[in-house]
What we know:
Shape: elongated
Number of strands: 27
Amino acid sequence: MPAKGQIVLFLRGDRPSAGVLDGEKSGKHIVLAADGKRLQIQDTAVLARGPDAGAGPPREAARHWDGKIEEACQAVDVAEIWELLEESGEMTAREIVEAWLGDGPGFQDRAPLLAALWNDRVHFSRRKDRFTPEPRSRVEERLARMQDHERKEARIDALCSAVSSFAGGGEPGDVDDGDWSRFLAGLREVAVHGPEARGAGEVLEVLRRAGLNAAEVPFDLLVRLGEFSLDENLDLLLHSIRDHFPEEVIEEAHAILALLEAGGWREGREDATDLGAVTVDSERTVEVDDALSVRVLDKGWEIGVHIADAASLVERAGALELEAVARGATIYMPDRVIPMMPSLLGRGGFSLEQGVDRPALSLFASVAPDGQVGDFRVARTVLRTQRRLTYEQADVLVKDEDPVLAPLASAAHVLREQRIAAGGVDLSLPELDVHLDEAGNVHVSVTRGSTPSHDLVSECAILYNRLVGRLLADQGLPGVYRVQPEPDEELPDTEEGGPAAELAARRLLSPSSTTTEPGRHYTLGVTGYCTATSPIRRASDLLVQRQIHAASCGQAPLSAGELDKALLSVVPAAAVVSRIERSRTRFWLLRHLDARVKGLIVAGVVVDRWSDRILVHSHPRAPAGLRAGGASAHARRRVVPQGRGDRREAGPGRCSA
Length: 657
């Protein structure tokens, strides 16, 4: 039985430790451990008994022997012991000590050996105090895992040191180039996808050990390292959006361009080069896919809506069409445009540029003075637009009684009135435009209400889409339709109710959805509304254009199954495009507000409120130059730019300024 004051090696949990016996209690030994704690242990937990602790403090003796045994334990070569006993089978700890050391050695030799055996996780398996040498194959496997772990720990330590140094303003320091490159790649994944990113574990561990916030640091660190710009578009990385095209797509585009230049496409097309067609777009539009013409009749007008005819030249299910289907649509952002089709077609061969003959799919429709639509037809045409106008230029020309735009504006007005009378909704909501100029300056403008040029372009597009939708439905051909159910509640009067009513109306409207069956579109007030006016920047419109060719020119249509399969890619891709466009607009609007509006006192209308924030619609003629005082000038702000003007959400304290 061990004596009080004796040094012992005992199991503390599953780890050998040195201590000093300090009596017994309830049949258990009381041991004073090296950390000063008194522990109760069973006699079976005592691995070896040593000398008397001496006259000094027991805790100091325990600490001395614990350190001495730990140091000596490191020198024990368990692998050599295993080599000797590899074929011996199961043995007790005492038998192993005797086999290795014999009977002579004392506590200071036995204790380190016992501690090494209990700490070993490679060469022996243990059941209580009995040890069995592991097979050589398992030992080699465990050693390999240990070496991998040690290398990983060394790599993480080096990366942690490099990141800490750089975050503190220094240089990354001495770190393996390959490890650093892989870390940066992982850091990019975390910046884009968050902590759930593939392979994020090691990156997050490095940041954690460096004491850095894994939610905020990755992007800032990548900017400082020159891997990201301050304006990096993470949405494009998140959704793996390419700004280049595969080689086979470019080859097909060049082949189409060669056909266009050769002129063979003109055969069998109606000559529409003398209609005086005009295009009306934003000055930043790069893909011009629709043009308008008009002929004044004795009673009403014949409106011509001419759409770039891409489907007649793009190979069905070819590389170009499949790429367009995968992309969904052209991405229009304030700072850049990523086209659905290669630029040599989208901005070149298919685009309805002024003074150039282009293939078009034209709708000619008779519109009565009361807005009723009479006969219409669709034709494959050779189109030459006479003028390319911006909305601002077109508005001036409408006022000046331009021979094309003034009649179109009149026709658009009666078409709109007829749609409203048929159940459509007149929602003239604010439109937000955010864009960057060539120097990188952000420009923001809000248009409240519609203008004549916007109205005429919009109404002509609606006319085209609903009539080709009717054409497809009449012939039993599947199309791509937009439908929208009625809201559950009556919409408020937006003219009388102001910004708050506009927001309420927007929230009451159900979202529109895409379907291959014609249905009612509540806001537009039409049934069977197809999407077909933008085939060079929307994949769904390209697919519908194939169906229009089938209905009007006898070409083979896409089956319902083929169209459904294509839409399984097109619809989600187009939804991603919309999210990217909204997100990027919000980003640049925030940048603009930080630079131009932050700290200013502005007049506004509260249109909604929550427990922690309010939604404010700023006055269009807000006073400039006034500075807000106090902390309220720095209250957090979230922009809601989806056609809602320059609304901002701010903490309640911001209003007190």
